[in-house]
What we know:
By secondary structure, the chain is of the alpha/beta class. 38% of the residues lie in helices and 25% in strands.
Amino acid sequence: MNILIGVSGGIAAYKIADLVRMFVKDGHEVKTILTENAKYFITPTTLETLSKNKCYTELFSSTRDVEHVELGKWADVMIVAPATANIIGKLSSGICDDLLSTVMLALDKPCYIFPSMNTNMLTHPAVQENISKLRDWGYLVYDPAEGELACGDIGKGKLPDVELIYQIVISENERAITDSSLANKTVLITAGSTRAYIDPVRYIENGSSGLMGVELVRNAWLRGAKVTLVCNKEVVERFPWVKYYSEMIMLVETTEDVYKAVSGVFDGTDIYISAGALCDFSNQPLKEKIKKDGKNTVLNMKPSVDVFSELSKQKKHQLMVGFALETNDIERNAKDKLVSKGMDVVVANSVDAIDSKTSNAIIIDKKGIRKYIKESEKRVMAEEILREIEKILFESVTPVEKTNQEAH
């Protein structure tokens, strides 16, 4: 995409350097506009170096080009971040006395606005009225984050993490061109590791970053699904942008927690994807911390609840997808797990996938191998998995329903 980024004069302006770098690294073309006050926080040279394009700062810098019109024509989307109360007020009142406000007024493309200011300024009736007006006009105005502000106050008004801004802009545009194949579907996904506590401070944990699960959440959202995510808090901390794609997030620690969480929403689920790393064994934790006294400590481990097997007994209409992480005989072990746990689909991969950004996988259903996925980023793997799920859903409908879907 051609991405135009407007930066107004807030302290968070310095963060936009990272945002520009992300878009450029991903292959997008980026041009930037700085207001006069924004130059106090970030320089045109910085943005020109990162974007490899001119940074625009003046309304009448050229007599040859009408830049406020030409920049709008060039852009596929525009981002305004940070958006101060001043620039929001200008746009809502039709005032255009600098390049940024003039471009925003002349723009006829999607415009993403990320307000950032002191909490008292943000909650002022004038600012709230201006934001409401812009939303009514079709501008995509997003709520600021909460936390410690530059003035030292704690409250709402922080610029969202630039990774979230990046995800929003990329995903919203990707969703616009993606078939809504899972519209009206509810998808339940587990992600990340679980723990079996030994004592109040020690635990055994399955290795998993949660990346595969959150990419599945994103990809299901792209296809129009309503997604519930069940994961530990570390997954949300590591990938805060997943909150944007999730209808609901349920935080868990143990395998038993996962079972309670998913059991509570399973009946209303259309597709269940178990991408979380569940501890197969649990332990009755000691109430006091184990002392290092030179003596051996014996743990009495017992099998945890088999979440997938128990849910498969409750299955009505749900399509159930599991993962099989194996150290050897991957394909055979995965096929055995497919049958023994009542899976409709199993995604088999090796332990090399743990905490890795890439992986190989085999997608298997009851008829056999559906697809081999060669070494791919997990975002690509998620897309392949959801594509196969779509095909299976389509294969399961009646001829009349299939004809109606094809016509649609």
